[in-house]
Specification:
This protein is an alpha+beta fold. The protein contains 5 helices and 15 strands. 32% of the residues are buried. It binds zinc ion.
Amino acid sequence: MHRSSRLIGLASVCFALNAFAGSGHDAHWGYSGETGPDHWGMMKPEFATCASGQEQSPIDISSANKGDLVKIDFNYKASPVKVLNNGHTIQVNFGAENTIKIGSQTYKLLQFHFHSPSENTINKKAYDMEAHFVHKNDKGELAVIGVMMQAGEANKIVDSVWAAIPKEINKEEALTAQINPSDLMPATKQFYHFKGSLTTPPCSEGVNWFVLKDAINVSADQVKAFVATVGQNARPVQALNKRSVATSN
Ligand SMILES: [Zn+2]
């Protein structure tokens, strides 16, 4: 009796996993071994750009020329958010309107999420973590702001997000406190700008990247807690190819 009910339990777990994998959720890619970044482009036809793309992210930023874009206008405010562990990262989803204006384009903040170590590197230096603020304009174009995080003092926003991480994968948990995304950014917002891609499958290109030059702090314990929850999740840097990096000053 006991044994058979356990077997039924296992069978339904397997079925659930298969149904999950077949539903279009990319449950199989990861960051090491046969499902690691070197294999993403071969895993599915939809992931081909991960291998064939010429403007892939992340990159190492080691030289930059003065660009035309000098600033990003931030229109961020304290907002209700939901926290999610999607199995690859911890993500904070925004419902309220937070926007940035770059040149003539307005982009709406969808979410931010984290990587450890940082994905982009500056002069070959990887930081302890990197936060990605993902924005979309009404043409569906993406602008991602990368914020480097260096081990030092603990970060209060990170504390409240980590405390709300749901045990279950892909289950959103509302945070009781509101978050102002600018509280997770440095005061000075000089940036590097380049064209790139999503750093996860399907590695779609056409993403406008802005990596802020100044880092913020996160404690070593906060980094450790993140890695204990989702593991290290940085795609290695990709070839720059014909691209160049512009700097805001
Ligand atoms: Zn990211």
